[in-house]
Amino acid sequence: MGEISKATLRRYPVYLKALRKLSDEGIRKIMSAELSQYVDIKPTTIRRDFSLIGQLGKQGYGYDVDELISIFARELGEDYDEKMILIGVGRLGTAILNYNNWNHVAGEIVCAFDIIPEKRNKEPKVNVPVYHISQLKEKMPKGCEIAILCIPSGAQEIVNQLHDLGVKGIVNFTREHFVLPEGMMKRDVDVVSTIQELVFEVNSMSR
Amino acid sequence: MGEISKATLRRYPVYLKALRKLSDEGIRKIMSAELSQYVDIKPTTIRRDFSLIGQLGKQGYGYDVDELISIFARELGEDYDEKMILIGVGRLGTAILNYNNWNHVAGEIVCAFDIIPEKRNKEPKVNVPVYHISQLKEKMPKGCEIAILCIPSGAQEIVNQLHDLGVKGIVNFTREHFVLPEGMMKRDVDVVSTIQELVFEVNSMSR
DNA sequence: TGAATATTGTCAGATTCTTCACAAATAAGA
DNA sequence: TCTTATTTGTGAAGAATCTGACAATATTCA
User: A60 and A24: one domain?
Assistant: First the structure.
């Protein structure tokens, strides 16, 4: 597989999501022009993005929806069955653990860590074992490369530990700033920043 | 104010976040090179981004942290005190409503809508009035331009209604796909897609 | 089977975004 | 006050990304 640009990478989950909906609606085949209206991405961009994975379509016909879904699902890691951990079982952490149409879509949250595991384990809504954060090293699942960070503070310290334990990717819900160690990557999920961007854009639009 | 690119726009909240932390640590002045290490964005990019707002720095000196914060806060809409609504008071919706270091950072969530408002209003954690979704039109706050969408399905219908009521921006937590009406903008906050991207990137890194 | 039609895959040009390099301007020290 | 050391702001080069155009190829229908 050739080099896939960051921009393209960000669009793959968008395609997958749209294709799943189309499939649910009983649609079996689709053309780039049609899909374009659906996802708001130009047909040419779609075709180029797809072509980076392989020859997925048939000229004069289009793409087979279910075939695309299974290819994207595989490419996006659904078949890796990635083992993940979650750190910080507060309100947001709990919401994520409970998020249901989730399991095995991108992997599985194996266990969680918190500073008050006794309390967290008593909450009926938390459906994976919660260990004390000091047990990070001993309880870390084998081959775990992804950690979801939902703690209010002290991120840097934890991130450094995770790095030493072989974690490669962080999904960051923390609003705190931290320096990313060499070789790690992260994705920020920041509701406040997202809203700020949007407010800014909406306001500059109407000026 | 000149045209500010989308890429730059996405970085403004990052700067603001970092600057707030620096200010908390008692740091009064900063140079682009220093800030760069902090936010992992090249100094030149920082300077260019800043220069689009105005002449914020002093040559041979740097930038005044608190001055930058107040400028960014204003530019990012904190002073707009944007009125927002939230739709879908499930687990995630509740987590967002409760998210505390939130209020007046990008505006205020005035009220929420759900299909079972009676139940939601009884939950002690929900701190704004919850109305039935059918009352959207009558209960919509004046001048509300931003809606936060946390419903599991039926997004398209709601989005169309919001559009008719003058909403310009959607913060979308829905995994469902919908077509964005003309003149609206949205930002997706999708944990699953985010993880998928990350898994994909981590895996293609090690291959 | 063959011609007409449709749609992909891809090259090259256009656009957007990033970064280098340096002049302009300020601060600090003698 | 004058000189030196800094650091910003920005024009222009460079990189990444997007998109128009069209050849290549499959499908469909006579």
Answer: yes
* φ/ψ (deg, to 5) at A170: -120, 130
Tens of each residue's pLDDT in chain B, 207 residues:
457 898 998 899 889 988 988 998 899 999 999 999 888 899 999 999 999 999 999 999 999 999 999 998 888 776 667 889 999 998 888 888 877 555 556 678 999 999 999 999 998 888 899 999 999 999 999 989 999 999 988 999 999 999 999 999 999 988 787 888 888 888 888 888 888 888 877 776 654
Minimal C-alpha gap between B187 and chain A (Å): 7
Nearest-CA distance A84 → chain B (Å): 10
Amino acid, single-letter form, for residue B91: R
User: Would the Cβ of A44 be found within 7 angstroms of any atom in strand D?
Assistant: yes
Evaluate whether residue B12 is within a structural domain: yes
For A27-38, give one letter per residue: b (16+ CB within 10 A) or e.
Answer: eebbebeebbeb
DSSP string, B72-99: HHHHTTTTTT-EEEEE--SHHHHHHHH-
Instruction: Please check whether strand C approaches the CB of B160 to within 7 Å.
Output: no
Q: Which residue range(s) make up the domain with B155?
A: 83-193
The residue among B51, B75, B99 that closes a domain is: B75
